[in-house]
Structures are given as structure tokens and as C-alpha cells.
Amino acid sequence: MLRSKILNRIRLLKPVIDRRCMSSASKTPLTLLEVDDKSGIATLSLNRPPVNSLNIDLMNSIIESITEIEGNKSRGLILTSANDRVFCAGLDLNELHKPNQERLKEFWAVFQDVWLALHLCSVPTAAAINGHAPAGGCLLATACEYRVMLPQMTIGLNETQFGYMAPKWVMLSYLSVLPRRLAERALTQGKLFTTAEALDVGLVDEIAASKEEALAKCSTFIDSFSKANPLARSLTKKQIREPDVQKLIADRAGDLKECLEYINSPLLQDGLGAYFEALKQKSRSKAGKS
Ligand SMILES: CC/C=C\CC/C=C/CC(=O)SCCNC(=O)CCNC(=O)[C@H](O)C(C)(C)COP(=O)(O)OP(=O)(O)OC[C@H]1O[C@@H](n2cnc3c(N)ncnc32)[C@H](O)[C@@H]1OP(=O)(O)O
């Protein structure tokens, strides 16, 4: 009785993701999903060159993969990148800069969905962070239960550096990993932690010398649940994570309204435009085009 009550409650908490079986406009798979026959662990690789920035299609592809992993009885999920320099560059700035308003609404709803799907994923989750993970990239990593990172990368919620305040639920994701005082300072500074700093403050759990080692460490973490009953484990995780999730689910429309006002404000658009232009300029200089 109690179990079915809890299960019903959790079903209500689950984001509505079934409506989003969209196909990608390009023919390239935006995510690569492999399930190891022996271990039963699924590896989901982000595969949107050049930097895995999160647009609607990539986020939908992640959601679809999570749904598949939950449905195919995988023992765990490892999130990683097919790119060996960048785990995920966060939200696609093309979606935020001078946005089409209807698309922006859809984009923000899918952004909420992808976080909910990963944060509430029923199987154990770990991130093999094999590249930089700023902003939304850091959010994906902190939604996972365990993080292993390669040296000389950066991770953090750097939104204030380009004039944005991270949404409340994004901040909560940070607060679930970092002590409050540290999270506040890092959020207000828009700090990007180096791998060594991230380990030091507990933003990541381990460092690995290579992607293979990171994947192996993530598998070891997932194996650590072998003695736990999968249903009891997943219900426990959801109960613990519920308060953060409820805040967003209870007011998705309010979050969207706030986001639209915020993103559309001229000051923020100007700041974002300058930031994006500087990124493009840096990229051109690197390629020797300027
Ligand atoms: C109510 C609240 C409202 C709003 C909240 C807003 C929340 C925002 C959350 C976000 O996630 S916003 C995105 C923030 N992301 C970043 O700040 C990361 C920016 N990128 C980088 O720092 C670097 O690109 C990198 C460290 C990830 C990788 O460096 P590198 O390997 O040297 O690549 P390049 O910098 O040369 O970039 C290659 C290529 O990719 C483009 N690009 C990079 N990041 C993005 C992005 N987030 N969106 C779109 N495009 C991006 C970059 O411009 C280059 O493109 P070119 O065509 O110019 O070559």
C-alpha cells in the first residue's frame, strides 16, 4: 500500500517526456548510446560538434536516450562526450541570443525536461567528464550521482560572467553538491573550477588520467549498488531529490515567464551578444582566420 502510494507520487513527479519524440533535422546522431552486454551499463555520449552545446534537438535526444535506458533495464548510465576536449559547452548561445520567442519557449521547456529526466533517472548515474563543462554542461554533470573528471579541464556555473543569473533550480543542483557558502561564492563569481579545484571542493568525486579510466571509475561506482535492491534504491534517490524537483515542477510556467523576461531584457541581450562575439573571435584567432 505504502509502496504503491510512493510509486504513484513519483509517477506524478516524473516530467512529461513521452510527447517529445522528435527527430533531429540533421542525419548525424546527436547522442550515441551503447549498452555493455556484460555489465549492463549504458554509456550515453553527447555528439554534437563542435562543443556539444545544448539545442532543442540534442536535449530531446538525451531525454529519449534516458527513457530508453530506463526501459531496457540497464544497470546504470554513464554520461560522457564523444568530443575529447569538451564535455558540454552548456546551452547553445544561438538559442538565447536574439531568440525567436516561440522557439525560446520550447527551448526552455526542453531544458527543464532534460534536467528533470537526468536528475530523476531511476538507474544509477555517473558523469565521465572528459572535457570542459561550463554552465549547462556543469548542470548535466551535477544532475548525475557521481563525477569523474579528466585533468586540465574546467567546470562550473559561470552564468554571472556573461551577465546571467542561473535559474533557481540550476542553483539547487549546485547546492546539492557543494556546501552552501562555497556554492554562493562560486555562483556569484561565475567561477570555473579547474579539475584539481573541483576535486578539492567536492564538485567532482575523482580524477582520471584518461577517458577509459574515467569510464572504468564510473562503472565501479555503478557496481557499488549491486547489493541494493534496484526499486528501493531508485525510490530512495527520488525521495531525497524530491524537494528540489518539486520546486521546479510546481512552477514551471513561472520559471518560463521569469526566463523569458530575463533573456529578452536588452541589457542581457547586449551582454550575451558581446560574450558570444568574443567566443567567435577567439575561435577565429585560433584557426588563424583573423
Ligand atoms: C532566468 C534565467 C535565464 C537565463 C539563464 C541562462 C543560462 C545559461 C546557461 C548556459 O549554459 S549558457 C552557455 C554558457 N556556455 C559557456 O559560457 C561556454 C562557452 N564556450 C567556451 O567557453 C568554449 O567554447 C569551450 C571551453 C567550451 C571550448 O573551447 P574550445 O575547444 O577552444 O572551442 P571554441 O571556444 O573555439 O568554440 C568552438 C566553436 O563553438 C562555439 N561555441 C562555444 N560555446 C558555445 C555555446 N555555448 N553555444 C554556441 N556556440 C558555442 C564557438 O563560438 C566556436 O564557434 P565558431 O563558429 O566561432 O568557430
TrEMBL record:
Q: What are the protein's GO molecular function terms?
A: delta(3)-delta(2)-enoyl-CoA isomerase activity
Highest taxon above the source species: Eukaryota
Q: Does the keyword Cytoplasm apply?
A: no
Instruction: Give the Gene3D superfamilies listed for this entry.
Output: 2-enoyl-CoA Hydratase, Chain A, domain 1 (3.90.226.10), 6.10.250.170
The listed locations are: Mitochondrion matrix
Q: What's a single GO BP term from this record?
A: fatty acid beta-oxidation
Q: Does the keyword Membrane apply?
A: no
Instruction: Name the catalysed reactions.
Output: (2E)-tetradecenoyl-CoA = (3Z)-tetradecenoyl-CoA; (3Z)-dodecenoyl-CoA = (2E)-dodecenoyl-CoA; (3Z)-octenoyl-CoA = (2E)-octenoyl-CoA; (3Z)-decenoyl-CoA = (2E)-decenoyl-CoA
Provide this UniProt record's keywords sorted from A to Z: Acetylation, Fatty acid metabolism, Isomerase, Lipid metabolism, Mitochondrion, Transit peptide
Q: Name one GO cellular component term.
A: mitochondrial matrix
Q: In which pathway does it act?
A: Lipid metabolism; fatty acid beta-oxidation
Q: What does this protein do?
A: Key enzyme of fatty acid beta-oxidation. Able to isomerize both 3-cis (3Z) and 3-trans (3E) double bonds into the 2-trans (2E) form in a range of enoyl-CoA species, with a preference for (3Z)-enoyl-CoAs over (3E)-enoyl-CoAs. The catalytic efficiency of this enzyme is not affected by the fatty acyl chain length.
Q: State how it assembles.
A: Homotrimer.
Q: What is this protein called?
A: Enoyl-CoA delta isomerase 1, mitochondrial
Give the originating organism: Drosophila willistoni (Fruit fly)
